[in-house]
Amino acid sequence: MKAIRTYLRAHMREPNFIAYAAMLLVAVLFPITVQFATNGNADYLVGLAADGGVYMLMAIGLNVVVGFAGLLDLGYAAFFAIGSYTYAILASDHMAATPFGHAIHLPFWLLLFIAMFVAACAGVLLGAPTLRLRGDYLAIVTLGFGEIVPQVFSNGGVWTGGVPGMSALDVPKLPFWIQGPWVDQPFGLTGEEFRFTTANLTAYYVLMIVLIIGVVILINNLQHSRLGRAWMAVRENESAAAACGVNTVSIKLLAFSIGAATSGFAGAFYGAKLSYVSSENFGFDVSVTVLAMVVLGGMGNIPGAMIGSIVLYFILFQFLPNAPAQIQGLATSIGLDSLNHATADWPGLGEEVSRMKYVIFGLVLVGIMLLRPQGLLPSQVRKQELTHAGHHEIAQEAG
Amino acid sequence: MNNYAVAALVQRLRTSVVTSPSGSLVNLVGTVVVAYVAVVAAQRIYQGGVTYFLQTMGFGLAQGSIFALVALGYTMVYGIIELINFAHGDVFTLGAFFSLALMPAFGLVEDKISGPALILPMLGLFVVTMLLCGVVNVVIERVAYRPLRRAPRLAPLITAIGMSALLEGIMFVWKGPFNLHYPGFLPETQVTIAPGVQIAAKALVVMAVALVLMVGLTFFIERTKLGKAMRATAQDSDAAQLMGIDINRTISATFFIGAVLAGAGGIIYGLYYNSVAAFDGFQYGLIAFTAAVFGGIGNIPGAALGGVLIGVIAAISDGYFFPAWTQVIIFSILIFVLVFRPTGLLGMRVPEK
């Protein structure tokens, strides 16, 4: 007991500690609260949060590449796509329709790691010839890769399902699971084998939280290891790091492939949860969104990237899609119902607001960056560097 | 690929065989792939006949000219502040939208006006649209990039993405999600350049406009004081400042000129394709940016060359191979160029700092 108290006293003022604690608390309370608030009709919201977890995983992975190692990756969604397609090909009836001729049904738990491995290999394949490029050239190569991969999947014909993609993928299974009032059952363990379905999105949510906690612990350990210090050395000054005996190419390659692996991991979950993959879902906008999450949250800081992903995910997938209906409701309740109806030169309030979503998204990105260029929750080390360094060094250091 | 690039490739191959075995393998595979593609392409072009080839080339050169105009803005901005200005592609679309809205004011109504009477109002339309785009881009720089010049490098990249979304959003709210019809003022005729050999007049007009603008830009960069200031700032902004150059003014001017070219590109895009939509510019911008990198980012003739080459390659891929793979081919070329010749076709080797 005393040990816990000393630990808390030592850490309770650290922003990162507070952020982790708050996120854990919210993660536990969120499904309970929304289910109570909506009388048990919040499955949709819980599922949405589970999808948000996919973005959070990607933000944590991209943070390794961009935040720790200082490599700008503009095609991160490509690895996400590779993870998802790996899952789709190896866990559905799809392969029966190809010249291969046999359906493959590997278990989800194994595929999480296979998808991770395949994505990491793709990262190595792309990174090995290109990581000797400096700075922005690497960003451009990744941008190109990010454009190529979804296009290849959509042109892949019978092997990848072409433009419509692949559907009816397997769902994860476990020998047992906890049940409770959220699925209209008494508390206890499910008797038979448990299948994760859309009828029980809370299960996906719990699974997502567990995966995130695992990844955070792993990446956090990496950050404070010899490898993590080498990443930061490369980020701050590549030549100096090389002079100190850091093998910069392999260090960068590791950052790149660990980032890719995390994305592939998230991709497998995404494929299983959606039970569907299509090349439309892995475009440049996904890469940019994840990058914006990392930079908005605070580059180089794991809880920063996580908070950035929560904020942006909420804005993009909850606030903006619902804004038209809410504004319409508001207009009706204050007697301006006429605004809701479309006329010749007025598309109707709801439509107008839904068209505004890009404007709002742009304003949010620009606004947050102007107000907090260092991000919402910047890394403490970097914050110190920023305040102690001269202006010129600041301009240089992020390079 | 020009002779110089081929010679450089061979040279690199030679040196890398000695220095790094893995690098030489990459180079060898690359050379084999490039040679194979070239042979197949040559065979198909030979079978396709002269007329089809010229049509394809006309299309390729026309779209390449537009790519080049957009690529110039990317390369100039990158050269001076090392920022990938993602909003640039949308400034290009904005050019098409502005000109569409301004057309009635210049009496440019489809089917009411044609022939030589078009020239003067068209000129006016070009000038006003280009100026408007220039002003918009200067405002963007002022609001979204200048306050972040001393911030971490990725911060302005995110505001650039934000600005891109904002511009797309504004055009979306303005005109809606649909493809807009853009009046076809350009003649739909074919011009005979040799007996039995024809090329679309439209393509010639587009190329001519682009050429005039590029010559103008070259003159501006090489011969005026502001152009000299730009070159100096791109080379070393601190030293330029010590020489009494107003850096902020020079950067504003760079954004202005980049957007002027993009605006003109937007108009000829509309005139050539007769259709434009709010989200066209982003993907187009990415390809134009690829062109800028292809030619050597920061290098102005390089961007023009890269744009034209990408246009031609895309047209050949569309015309002789599989249109669905064109994007893959373009971006694969990008990766190949960067692996073999990281500074692009015309870029200089920059010593590592």
Describe the model.
The complex is a heterodimer of chains A (399) and B (353). Chain A is mainly alpha-helical and 399 residues long. Chain A has one domain (2-397). Chain A contains 16 helices and eight strands. Chain A has a two-stranded antiparallel sheet with strand order 1-2. In chain A, a hairpin with an 8-residue loop joins β5 (178-179) and β6 (188-189). In chain A, α8 (226-236) packs across α10 (248-274). Chain A is globular and about 70 Å long. Residues 16-21 of chain B have low confidence and may be disordered. Chain B is 74% helix and 4% strand. In chain B, α1 runs antiparallel to α2, α3 (50-81) runs antiparallel to α12 and α7 (201-223) runs antiparallel to α10 (247-273). Chain B has helices at residues 3-19, 21-48, 50-81, 88-102, 119-145, 154-175, 201-223, 225-235, 237-242, 247-273, 280-295, 300-320, 326-340, and strands at 180-181, 190-194, 197-200, 275-276. Chain B has a single domain, classed as ABC transporter involved in vitamin B12 uptake, BtuC (Orthogonal Bundle), CATH 1.10.3470. Chain B is globular, with a radius of gyration of 21 Å. Chain B has 353 residues and is mainly alpha-helical. Chain B contains 13 helices and four strands. Chains A and B meet through α5, α6, α11, α14 and α16 of A and α2, α6, α11 and α13 of B.
